[in-house]
Amino acid sequence: MQQALSLLHPWRCVVCQQRSDQPRDLCRACADELPLLQQQCQRCAEPLAVMAALCGRCQQKLPSFDQVFAIWLYAQPVQGMLTAFKYQRQQVAGRVLAETAGAHIADAIAAGDLALPQALVPVPLHRWRLLRRGFNQSHLIARDLQRCLQRRDMQLNLRPSLLARIRRTRPQAGLDLAARRRNLRAAFSVHGEVPAHVCLIDDVMTSGSTVEACARLLKRAGCQRVDVWVLARASRID
Ligand SMILES: [Zn+2]
Ligand SMILES: [Zn+2]
Description:
Number of strands: 9
Helix content: 25-40%
Bound molecules: zinc ion
Order of helices and strands: HEEHHEHHEHHEEHEEHE
Radius of gyration: 18 Å
Strand content: 15-25%
CATH architecture of the largest domain: 3-Layer(aba) Sandwich
Structural class: alpha/beta
Distance between the termini: 54 Å
Strand order of the largest sheet: 3-9-8-4-5
Largest sheet: 5 strands, parallel
């Protein structure tokens, strides 16, 4: 049956493009190449060169969010897969990453290393950017993560409209940290009842300014704990 199916629908790895008779969009060899984030700040998941509990910035001032869980470093092939997902509409690349991440997250929750939040909240796009792109990548990732967790009997809500982006901001890429913070001032608003424990979902975290702005706002609105789950963590620029 499997072989008959694979003749009708030959599976192809999204990274190396090799055909496979296994029902997989990512071959085993490429899956093993994904750069897992190893040594990191316990609070913001900043990649660290030496073992330490907190990065220099978190030691100076703790962020508003409580814990960041990032699966991979923002490096190849994850970087290329996320670019294909966001800018070339290759939704399979995003789905493969989200489902693989979902398995890691479910394992971490089952092991007691990660708390199960009440709701997943995708970092919103401004409606103009949403119109241009046609989808919010964070929303699709959050939906896939929710499905992965539900398959493991971990129930949580998806709240894509809890946060809205009310001010159109310049793209964060290429801005230094101070400019990123200025850029995000008053960019978001909260709508509806705020759960006590939410988790923000985004594809990539770099400076952390976006999730910091969202977390600060959610806490001001009564949220007690804000975690952040991202697929990839880039080193910040400072
Ligand atoms: Zn491959
Ligand atoms: Zn940190």
